[in-house]
Amino acid sequence: MAKYILNALVENHAGILAKMASLFARRGFNIDSLAVGETHDPKLSSATIVVDGDAQTVDQVEKQLSKLIDVISVQTLAPEASVSRELSLIKVSCTAKNRAEITQIVDIFRANIIDISDHAVIIELTGSAMKIEAFKEMMRPYNILEMSRTGMIAMTRSLADSKKVEADNHIL
Questions:
Q1: Cα 41–chain centre separation
Q2: Would you tell me how many other CB atoms lie within 10 Å of the CB of residue 58?
Q3: Number of domains in the chain
Q4: CATH code of the domain in which 133 resides
Q5: Which of 32, 48, 141, 165 is deepest in the core (most CB within 10 A)?
Q6: DSSP letters for 77-140
Q7: Which CATH number fits the domain that encloses residue 8?
């Protein structure tokens, strides 16, 4: 089974997320990731949904979502014609002895240390799910204390840029 990214433009009001989640639950569709946030227009929200399945299942999900009254549009995003990112916060055990090693790995992954104490650092990392998983594996020996991820957000590339491939999409 493949992972598909769906992007839905929805009216921004209470209850739409519950309606979407309910639709998935009733139909027995599993959601790998769901992220919803306001767009440039405060009356609208963008929902990025990652699902596992085949083309027929995803087509059915797209049609079911389109039937919801509060959904304005739904589209399946092709990886080569879209940009997607995830944000993660990772708290790692850190001592004076290993702080330089951790900082070096953070720099290699273009992440940021956003909080530091005597015993831990909190690292912010943005990128593909694959990049986040690779970073997580590099941090495992230092003892990951806590981790939180946003889930994927995505949008289509502009028509003029659709033939370009952003180099950062392929880092790790």
A1: 21
A2: 20
A3: 2
A4: 3.30.70.1150
A5: 48
A6: EPGGGEEEEEEEEEEEE--TTTHHHHHHHHHHTT-EEEEE-SSEEEEEEEE-HHHHHHHHHHHG
A7: 3.30.70.260
What are the C-alpha distances in Å from 27 to residues 9, 20, 30, 34, 81?
21, 11, 9, 16, 28
54, 77, 100: which is the final residue of a domain? 77
Which residues constitute the domain of residue 123? 84-154
Q: Structure pTM?
A: 0.78
Residue 148 lies in a domain: yes
From the first residue on, what is the mean pLDDT of each consecutive set of 10 residues in the chain (172 residues)? 88 88 83 90 92 84 88 89 93 95 97 96 95 96 95 81 45 44
pLDDT of amino acid 7: 93
Q: How far apart are CA 151 and CA 85, in angstroms?
A: 8
